[in-house]
Structure to design on (132 residues):
């Protein structure tokens, strides 16, 4: 998917890829109890923007972006998120999963592009996004 859109007076291009991983989680409730452990097929939507196209006339190579995103989600695939170091001190909510993936992906992108946002879907119609 490729979009060109305007941000203020600057035209921007956006690409988006989608990936899926499977993981379980249980959230700590406000009363201190835990909800039952349950699993999701987490859909991940990654949006990358740039104000210019590269020598190939793309924002970036889709395969390279897929490699970067996969390097962030593969460690979470087939796990219990509560047991992962990234969620040791926070609830593994959809919002926190989106934030964690955003940080992991942004750290690997070149300066020519910007990670616009990461959205995760834990169930149909239930999405959370993170961006900076």
């Amino acid at each position: 998917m490729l979009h060109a859109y305007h941000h203020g007076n600057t035209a921007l291009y956006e690409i988006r890829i989608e990936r899926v991983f499977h993981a379980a989680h249980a959230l700590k409730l406000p009363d201190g109890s835990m909800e039952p452990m349950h699993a999701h097929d987490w859909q991940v939507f990654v949006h990358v923007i740039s104000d210019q196209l590269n020598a190939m006339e793309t924002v970036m190579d889709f395969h390279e972006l897929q490699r970067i995103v996969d390097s962030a989600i593969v460690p979470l695939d087939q796990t219990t998120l509560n047991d992962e170091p990234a969620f040791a001190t926070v609830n593994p909510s959809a919002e926190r999963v989106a934030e964690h993936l955003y940080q992991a992906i942004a750290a690997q992108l070149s300066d020519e592009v910007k990670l616009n946002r990461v959205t995760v879907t834990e169930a149909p119609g239930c999405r959370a996004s993170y961006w900076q």
User: Anything to note?
Assistant: The two ends are 22 Å apart (CA to CA).
